[in-house]
Amino acid sequence: MITLPQANNKDISIVVTGAAGQGIQTVEDILGKVLKRSGLNVFATKEYMSRVRGGNNSTEIRVSSKSVRAFVNRIDLLICLNKGLRNYLKERINNNTVIMGDIEKMGKELAGRGQKFFDVPLLHFAKELGSPLFANVVAAGIITALFDVDMSLLEQYFDERFGTKDKGLVTKNIDAAKKGYEIARELAKDITVKMDHNSEIRKELLLTGSDAVSLGAIAGGCNMIFGYPMSPATGVLSHLSQVAEEFEIVTEQTEDEISAMNMAIGGWYAGGRAMVTTSGGGFDLMSEGLSLVGIGESPMVIHLGQRPGPATGLATRTEQADLNLALYAGHGEFPRAILAPGSIQEAFYMTQHAFNLAARYQVPVFILTDQYLLDSSYNLPAFSCEGLKVEKHIIKTDESYKRYVITEDGVSPRGIPGYGEGLIAFDSNEHGETGRNMDEDPQIRSEMNAKRIRKLKGLEKDSLPPALYGDVDYDVLLIGWGSTKHIIEEAMEEFSRPKTAFLQIRQPFPLHSSTKDYLKRAKVIVDIEGNTTAQMANLIKLLTGIEASHRILTSSGMEITVEELLIKLRCLHV
Amino acid sequence: MTDVRMFDVPGPIDIMWCPGCGNFPILDAIKKALAELDLAPQDVLICSGIGQAAKLNHYVNTHFLHGLHGRSISNATGAKAANPKLVVLDVGGDGDRYAEGGNHIIHTIRRNPDITALVHDNRVYGLTKGQASPTSPMGYISPTTPKGVASLPLNPIALAVSLDASFVAQAFAGDIEETKEILKKAISHKGFSFVNIFQPCVTFNKINTYQWFKENTYYLGDDYDASDRKMALEKAFETDKLPLGVIYVNNRKTFEESLAAYKNSDKPLYDRNILWDKLTKTFERFV
Questions:
Q1: How far is the CA of B248 from the CAs of A85, B234, B243, in angstroms?
Q2: What is the ipTM for the molecules in this complex?
Q3: Under an 8 A CB cutoff, do B78 and A264 touch?
């Protein structure tokens, strides 16, 4: 009898693999929702190739009676919808892995791997049900049955998904799931799943980082979004386009990223609250627009979903290598802020905050995410909008209004056309207080430049402090930023070295003043990031003078796993 | 009718155009057009790109957004979408519009925002001192084309008509009165209005002078049917004399009208508030 979870583990890691077009996405969706609604914690993350059909993609779903939020290398249960597994997946199979697949199709591909291979001719059953595409639903049925989930939850799922469109499809899918249950009854003779359900989890939300950014934007008063489709950031544009009428959002898929940024600038100028969503290569094109944001002192919110570069790189994979791009893009000198959410909750709250920060200081605010965060999901308590505000920071103007009046903190009260009698200037040229011709006067130029840069002081004061996890009495300090947060937390727990803590940099720029204090107290600083040149470590050195003694850097296109990080931590011998 | 002096920028201003520049009469025509349309300065936003022509909005007393080379039409689109009550103009030269901004012109015509785009077509780059532009004739000698331009000039009217632009007109800076009337029609038109304005550059373009334009253009008659797209294309291909006037009009849904944000409310975005209850309810979709 095979019992899951494996000894020493509290969760079960399920990986479903198949070709693009076989519905891996659907399996993830079904399992995530249904298992969560049955009272189990779930974490899902997908990895996929840059193609629409064929190839080999996979999704990992971790299920546990405790909270799970990190990507692991381990596969407890592998379900294959097709053959042609990449080496990347094969290497993740260990001696305990239970594999299910169609032996006829798979042939000798996985011979000798794993603990046991269960022959489940999914495609055969699917064709019996009417289409090979049902293989994914049969697979989902098998898994939910093994977890002892009531069939009614699957019926509810299919009704929700297809009920309004096609009742016939609901029935067919339920039949496919039922087939899965039938198969699972046989498998249950060899496989037992022992997991406690918790009814509290039923009410929790299950959503991706991409959804969280979208909802956070709405909560931030976003009413305009512009973008050009680019993985992994397109989801935000799609999501907001789909709720455009409901939440009164101006949405446009522009002809290119240059147009997106410039429309967003025009939008803020006339009183809108605009966001652009893109990835590194698309943001390259927005750089000039960013400098216009800088000199014109427009608020701006930029969602930058990182992926491996340079150039096309790996379109559908993940990396943390655009911190420097966000820091230094746009010629000339002007202030900006960079936020780096590390969790799905932070993706919501920080995006919400970004709009207010941008409006308050009239600067560009980046929300730096990555493919791993955007495409991962886990259950969490519903977001609370209590205490959240939309700060417009717009004044009504009179005829004497000057858009760029010099002030002590550098922020000139912002008027908009049509709200009051004032005429509103916005100039890409250097300008005087009225925004009009200043004869290229050097004195005025110095004062304007200084005024803009002065806004950094306020931004520093309003910076989000880093978060410390672990032993407050640390001598070893791990530092990380963005999506590695939960992975570092889980690895650190397993590492179980006393006097170890993890400092999550939530706002890379401007850096919160407490960061230096945290770093000073450490004897050893271990920098963990998903790039090759240690961009965060270098930034921290630049801003605090303190250098990380060790660096754990990965840039394979895959997010670092808990196991990989654990091995590297142990190798440090600290 | 508004007093046209309302559109004069208060105080002494230094207009950075060469004496005799074709931009001066265009500036004049714009101010008169706005005044005769009964608009107040607060009603109007003039966006512009980069170049001598694009300095225009510093010399008119309205809201202004002086953007980047070739990109201001996107600023204008975004601004109009945030507040459709604004009357939005966008001004630039032939380099700004047809070179750097080419892609945006094409898609803005498709998108059809209710803004008026004026192109000051002087067939040369004035501000950067005399290089050829996309509308310079073949063989035009310039600092970067010492053997003469080898590429074919772009045909703005043909481009606009082939894309089924909502309003296409051509004007000549030398005729302030006629240009003013064309501008009034363009601004009043609901939809994207595209006006190519022939403008002599007295400093750099010694070929397309005031005299040259006078001799090589003609006004379309009162009997001309601007709704005939085939005819408009024929006019666009004319080379003997270039047609002036309203060449093509095609009424269709504007960008703003198609936006879901304006389906249930016509309030500008700044005047709206977030719907907290709706948002909290939407979380339920993820349970």
A1: 59, 11, 12
A2: 0.98
A3: yes
